[in-house]
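Lecture 7, part 2: worked example. A protein chain together with zinc ion.
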Amino acid sequence: MIRPASCPICRKPVAAPAEGVPHWFPFCSERCRQVDLLRWSQGKYAIVEPLTPERLAEEAEKTDDGEE
Ligand SMILES: [Zn+2]
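Predicted complex, written out as structure tokens:
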């Protein structure tokens, strides 16, 4: 079963390799592979620790110092 593949980055159709698989597969090129890697690493860094009610209370306690 052969399905036409398209590059996840630029949506360009990617020809199924006749023999062997290029190391950038399933992207259309090494460049698009790099773009994908970059997006992943940026996504990772963008994940922010979720603020839970417990954590909010903790933060409030810290900033409450000295107030009487
Ligand atoms: Zn591409």
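The first strand starts at residue 5 and ends at 6. Residues 1-14+23-45 form a domain with the Erythroid Transcription Factor GATA-1; Chain A fold (CATH 3.30.50.10). Keep this in mind for problem set question 3.
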